[in-house]
Write a sequence for this structure.
């Protein structure tokens, strides 16, 4: 359950900000599928047409910097992305991804993954496996509070349980 | 226990227990804001968690603004505005209209924020409230929508990175130059997950509108918050701006033995006007390194530097002059109140006479939506907070960041200009009023 993949890696560099994930001219929509049609539109125009369910976004340092807009992680969920592996994340993107139930892993060796490599991620163990090279890389496990939030499906289910509105 | 930072103090108060950096807490939130881009998603999240006819924890603590696409620039944006309007009406929250201004400026002018408050906003520049000594932080729409329902939210208590500036600042050096210096020194991600705390005599000497600039751009080094310890200047400001009667708690300050991630210390007199080169705020250099760079557009506005004092600084430079041929100057006041003050004092007339395009209040071209976006190869100097690739339009455009004084000087010459090289007859509000310019 906690293992996602294998799936193809779409590799990006450092400081990919939320405007580059979902260009601002498209964020009048709040629909994940519609947003997915424009994901990485300017940075990597072939992404949205070619990304398949179960694939991964892999990035360098400070992924998701910039705006607080949740349209960025939503567009990746809409694209069917199974997780984001980065050397580091900007704070609000990391928080939004956890709240929305999009798996995120901080992995210092993310730069050893090449574009198109088949990878798997193990959220419980905190590891990333590159099936091209057979190498396994350590990732930072989430702190217990965040792990519970992710395990429970994100912030909305958590809040529903708190409010007693869960079905 | 050992001493606490002001961040730990505020979050302890709101969590109801003593907390320290690294702790995870659920804390009571004082105010919540969303705008026309993030509001509809927050409303979706709220309706999802509460079901039909759910209750807001405190409608009076919820504020919506319509500032990013204001006035609406398309049908989808207009529909988003209507979603926000209808929700605010149905639930009795506060809601401000197009031209009322940018969320952070409206929140401050309308007196929603006081020192020591915990403010969350579905906008990354919600750090701005730290200029008043509040803990303000940007969150996502799901965060906000669930907080609408519960009045609280989860936080990791951040470590603090302290920036101390001592002594006096030279002529031509403003808060914008300080914050670009800090970001340049620690890098775009240098304060990730942390509070950026600003202290020292040069900071305490800053008027509040400049402290807001320091807090606003904490996010540009990854910061969760930016904060200046509140003092009597904050009380005076809130009384003048918002009619609030606030007494400052002298204990609302970091303890002498508080723990910091690191302390960066500066001597004010060593600092110079800064410009951040494309395409990252961390590319800050002394202005003289880029002097002479031709620009197509100068953009004055945003939640960073769209206040009256900022726009007046540009008018100071351009009074009786013309914007350089071939250069466009776009001025967007941060709020309706700023607009009206520019009108009353003659600043608006001065700028329009100089050839500026003066727009209604809002975010303007800062986020690249409309009204002043940049084409391929356009070069802009903006008083904004970020200059990411394509931020204000084409991915091929290039944005430099600078202070309002640098923006005014640059508009005058059509190339990046050191503000210290331009004579600026101080604009005298009273003299202008006496001359009968006030309408």
């Amino acid at each position: 359950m906690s293992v996602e993949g294998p799936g193809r890696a779409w590799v990006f560099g450092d400081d990919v900000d939320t405007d580059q994930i979902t260009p601002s001219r498209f964020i009048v929509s709040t629909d994940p599928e519609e947003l997915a049609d424009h994901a990485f539109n300017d940075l990597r125009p072939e992404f949205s047409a070619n990304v398949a369910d179960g694939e991964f976004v892999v990035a360098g340092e400070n992924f998701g910097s910039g705006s607080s807009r949740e349209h960025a992680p939503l567009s990746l969920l809409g694209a069917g992305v199974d997780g984001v592996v980065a050397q580091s994340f900007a704070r609000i993107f990391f928080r939004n991804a956890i709240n929305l139930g999009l798996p995120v892993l901080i992995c210092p060796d993310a730069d050893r993954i090449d574009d198109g490599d088949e990878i798997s991620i193990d959220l419980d163990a905190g590891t990333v496996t590159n099936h091209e090279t057979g190498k396994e890389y350590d990732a930072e496990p989430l702190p217990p509070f965040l792990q519970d939030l992710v395990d429970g499906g994100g912030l909305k289910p958590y809040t529903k349980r708190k409010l007693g509105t869960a079905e | 226990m050992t001493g606490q930072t002001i961040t730990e103090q505020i979050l302890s108060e709101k969590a109801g227990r003593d907390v320290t950096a690294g702790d995870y807490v659920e804390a009571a939130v004082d105010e919540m804001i969303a705008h026309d881009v993030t509001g509809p998603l927050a409303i979706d999240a709220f309706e999802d968690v509460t079901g039909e006819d759910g209750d807001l924890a405190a409608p009076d603590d919820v504020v919506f603004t319509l500032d990013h696409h204001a006035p609406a620039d398309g049908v989808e944006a207009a529909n988003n505005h209507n979603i926000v309007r209808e929700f605010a009406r149905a639930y009795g929250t506060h809601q401000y209209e197009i031209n009322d201004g940018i969320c952070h400026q409206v929140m401050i002018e309308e007196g929603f924020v006081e020192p020591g408050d915990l403010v969350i906003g579905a906008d990354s520049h919600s750090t701005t409230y730290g200029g008043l000594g509040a803990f303000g932080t940007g969150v996502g729409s799901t965060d906000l929508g669930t907080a609408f329902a519960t009045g609280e939210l989860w936080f990791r208590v951040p470590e603090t990175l302290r920036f101390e500036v001592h002594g006096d600042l030279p002529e031509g050096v403003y808060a914008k130059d300080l914050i670009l210096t800090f970001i340049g020194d620690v890098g775009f991600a240098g304060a990730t997950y942390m509070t950026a705390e600003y202290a020292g005599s040069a900071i305490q000497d800053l008027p509040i509108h400049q402290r807001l600039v320091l807090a606003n751009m904490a996010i540009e080094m990854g910061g969760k918050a930016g904060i200046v310890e509140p003092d009597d200047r904050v009380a005076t400001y809130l009384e003048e701006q918002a009619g609030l009667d606030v007494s400052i708690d002298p204990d609302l300050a970091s303890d002498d033995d508080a723990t910091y991630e690191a302390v960066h210390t500066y001597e004010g007199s060593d600092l110079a006007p800064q410009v951040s080169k494309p395409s990252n705020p961390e590319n800050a250099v002394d202005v003289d390194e880029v002097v002479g760079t031709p620009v197509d557009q100068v953009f004055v506005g945003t939640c960073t530097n769209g206040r009256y004092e900022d726009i007046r600084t540009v008018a100071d430079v351009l009074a009786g002059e013309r914007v350089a041929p071939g250069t466009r100057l776009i001025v967007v006041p941060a709020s309706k109140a700023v607009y009206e003050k520019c009108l009353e004092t003659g600043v608006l007339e001065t700028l329009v006479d100089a050839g500026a395009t003066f727009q209604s209040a809002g975010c303007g071209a800062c986020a690249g939506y409309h009204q002043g976006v940049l084409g391929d190869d356009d070069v802009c100097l903006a008083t904004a907070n970020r200059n990411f690739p394509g931020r204000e339009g084409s991915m091929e455009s290039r944005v430099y960041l600078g202070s309002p004084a640098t923006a005014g000087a640059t508009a005058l010459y059509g190339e990046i200009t050191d503000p210290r090289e331009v004579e600026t007859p101080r604009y005298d509000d009273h003299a202008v009023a006496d001359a009968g310019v006030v309408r």
